[in-house]
Amino acid sequence: MKNLVNKVIKKLIKKKFKISFAESCTGGLLSSSITSISGSSKVFNLGLITYSNKTKVNILKVSDKIIKKYGAVSEECCLSMVKNLSKITKSKICISITGIAGPNGGTKSKPVGLVYIGVKKGNKIITKKNLFKNKGRISIQKITVRTALNMIDNIV
């Protein structure tokens, strides 16, 4: 994964893009993967861990109505997170992640391994619904970070 992180950082530096993250189920792992590389300060702007619904509402200004109607783990919440992160940070690229890393918290309609990733570059927004195999919490967090990095790589 270090090669992918290096590749993404080099592309961001070359284009002079700043990047910001709003992470939930990854708990800062995406931010950590970027900031573990020397030189990342040229591109890394902000990393928020909006783990609770309350912080999603209070910090990221996700509408309480969205969380009540669709839940924190939903495309609607993910989309709102990435849009509002972009307003807060003015970063060229913004990423939002919300999901269920387990081992608990899953339901039939929202199983462990369900993760939404939002990527916003300029006016373009992509949200991706993922259903990762439940191979444990750390595994789900790592595959989520890898998937987000690949999405960044593809958009830069």
From TrEMBL:
Pfam families: CinA (PF02464). It comes from the Bacteria. Residues 3-154 form the CinA C-terminal domain. NCBIfam families: PncC_domain (TIGR00199). This is Nicotinamide-nucleotide amidase. The lineage of its organism: Bacteria, Pseudomonadati, Pseudomonadota, Alphaproteobacteria, Candidatus Pelagibacterales.
